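Dear Dr. H.,

I hope your travels went smoothly. While you were away I took the liberty of generating a structure for the chain from your last submission, since the lab meeting agenda had it listed for discussion. I wanted you to have the full record in hand beforehand rather than looking at slides cold. The sequence, exactly as received, is reproduced here:
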Amino acid sequence: MKLLTDARHLLHRAGIDVTRWPHRPEAGVIDWGLAEVIRSRGINCVIDVGGNRGLFARRLRELGYAGRIVSFEPSPTVLPVIQAAAERDPDWIVRPVALSSEPGQAQLRLHKDPELDSMLDTLPGVVDQLPHVAGTGIVTITLSTLAAEFPAIIAGIAEPQVLLKSDTQGYDVKVLRGAGASGLAPAVVAVLVELAAQPIYHDQPDMTTVMDLIMTAGFTPVAFEPFFQSSDGLRMIELDALFIRPDRSGPDWGHPDRAKSAASDAPADR
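The corresponding predicted structure, in token form, is as follows:
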């Protein structure tokens, strides 16, 4: 299995993927979107809110991103893991705090799977179906805000072009509101966020609430990719969503030549 994984990583670096067929049509679309947004927007700073073990930061490096990464991870379960990974990368900084709408302190619920650690309680019945969501304890963590952290995050970058990624298990709206009354800084040109089609935590905002907040701020969708489905595989539970701030004002209905090219590449009717 490790040989297959190593071989696939080598193919990814060459811009090639091998997967099962048929597969969900959106599989891998977020990686494609991230690579294109990083290239087209000249991303030179990534804010990784909910860094966990550092998987997202390593994913960015595999996609060829070489700029600054600032990860925020308060969980004592995984903080040593992400700190150890970042020690080997001079452009990767780890802040041992959580981001919220206000500074202070909060209770973080720990789970068997640290990727599911949250400041929110799980809904009744979730643990019965998903044993890895079972709680293992509660710790007190420090909260900061995006507005307070932002100057240090972009310090020394002449013309920052920032991608904000937020994966906080139901807390993403508070992360976004922590940008302040004026909203996300103009330097933030892309947002990657986790959406809940079916919440698993108490008071977890539904996906349309999160999307409305981002799109009202002037961002437009690039790609959506489910990563957690119901037992029959047909209902999305959680999905990643990538948004960009358009580089032009007004609608963009597409280039005529691109539309013609897409039409010519489409399969003929059967």
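Two observations you may find useful: The CA atoms of residues 128 and 134 lie 9 Å apart. The chain has a mean pLDDT of 85.

With kind regards,
E. W.
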